């Protein structure tokens, strides 16, 4: 039976890249790039609350890091390293093997080495917390408060799929295996456009990653920037896995559905061409979905006119 040290050694100790001191010491070490700011973020994933107990552990390892890379991208930062805190009720070798493979595959691709962590036994379910460290050239971070009236609002990827997959898996939507097959990748293996996020530093204005729902997250930009956000319903990229669903359900999934891990950002209209060129270079689907205006709040314009966006929704863990 593996103890804590054996477990770390077997599953989480891979050679750190040149210039890093990784797993094995009391602290990891690396040298920050001169003139760059350190960007850091941490996320907590709890079994039964943020993931299903029987989710594929390879995908879980991927997602645990992906949600953190999403935060770095939303700040305009590039990944530098990550740390993993893991609490497990028992040691399951196959689970650990798959989980660490999923994590390392994305970590390698993102040049975000795992340089340390902590491992403990938990009384209840699995708890996963990843801390990411990134860097952004000083003064170029994409802060939520940086949107200006007249800015375009941009969104990467599509909307609604993760929400529909979650409803299907929770039985809140009648079973439909074809629709589940089309949508569950968005929920279980998100690919946040973190490289585009970094490329936008110093070019875009405000940015946020859509984790709690478009309206809620864009609302954070609007509030921090003291502006209003006007969305164009027809410009919103509805995921094709929503085809054929009732219009009100599509609208809810698109506007308030969470777990999207795409990037919503604002930029000056003069930068449209440069922004589109960057997205094309990164192979990222990009839509211009509205504009920032004077005022406050989030609005949606459709054929009936301009309405306040549904205030309801957005995933609030402590909400009623
Ligand atoms: P300490 O008691 O000094 O906190 P630990 O015994 O917890 O150190 O960990 C030993 C080494 O293994 C440290 O370098 C730590 O960063 C690393 N480590 C522990 N758990 C993990 C993990 N789940 N993933 C990666 N590294 C880990
Ligand atoms: Mg420890």
From TrEMBL:
Iron recorded as keyword: no
Native source organism of the sequence: Alcaligenes pakistanensis
GO molecular function, one term: ATP binding
Keywords: ATP-binding, Kinase, Magnesium, Metal-binding, Nucleotide-binding, Thiamine biosynthesis, Transferase
Pfam families for this protein: AIRS, AIRS_C
Family note: Belongs to the thiamine-monophosphate kinase family.
Entry protein name: Thiamine-monophosphate kinase
Gene: thiL
Pathway membership: Cofactor biosynthesis; thiamine diphosphate biosynthesis; thiamine diphosphate from thiamine phosphate: step 1/1
Positions contributing to Mg(2+) 2 binding: 43, 71
Ligand binding (substrate): 50, 259, 315
Annotated Mg(2+) 1 binding sites: 43, 118
Protein role: Catalyzes the ATP-dependent phosphorylation of thiamine-monophosphate (TMP) to form thiamine-pyrophosphate (TPP), the active form of vitamin B1.
């Amino acid at each position: 039976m593996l103890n804590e040290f054996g477990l770390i050694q077997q599953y989480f100790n891979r050679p750190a890249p040149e210039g890093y001191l990784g797993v094995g010491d009391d602290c990891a070490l690396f040298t920050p790039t001169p003139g760059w700011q350190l960007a850091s973020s941490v996320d907590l994933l709890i079994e039964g609350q943020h993931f299903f107990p029987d989710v594929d552990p390879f995908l879980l390892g991927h997602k645990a890091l992906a949600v953190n890379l999403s935060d770095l991208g939303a700040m305009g930062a590039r990944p530098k390293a990550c740390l993993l805190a893991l609490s497990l009720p028992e040691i399951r070798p196959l689970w650990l093997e798959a989980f660490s493979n999923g994590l390392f595959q994305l970590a390698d691709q993102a040049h975000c080495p795992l340089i340390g962590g902590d491992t403990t036994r938990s009384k209840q379910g699995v708890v996963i917390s990843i801390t990411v460290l990134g860097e952004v050239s000083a003064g170029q971070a994409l802060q939520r408060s940086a949107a200006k009236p007249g800015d375009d609002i941009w969104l990467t990827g599509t909307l609604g799929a993760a929400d529909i997959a979650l409803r299907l898996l929770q039985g809140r939507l009648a079973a439909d295996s074809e629709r589940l097959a089309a949508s569950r990748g968005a929920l279980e293996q998100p690919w946040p456009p973190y490289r585009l996020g970094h490329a936008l530093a110093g070019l875009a204005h405000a940015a946020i990653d859509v984790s709690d729902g478009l309206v809620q997250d864009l609302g954070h930009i609007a509030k921090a920037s003291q502006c209003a956000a006007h969305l164009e319903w027809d410009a919103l990229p509805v995921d094709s896995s929503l085809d054929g669903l009732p219009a009100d359900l599509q609208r809810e999934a698109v506007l308030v559905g969470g777990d999207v891990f795409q990037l919503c950002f604002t930029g000056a209209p003069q930068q449209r061409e440069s922004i589109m060129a960057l997205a094309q270079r990164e192979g990222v689907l990009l839509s211009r979905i509205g504009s920032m205006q004077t005022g406050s709040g989030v609005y949606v314009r459709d054929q009936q006119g301009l309405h306040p966006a549904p205030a309801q929704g957005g995933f609030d863990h402590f909400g009623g």
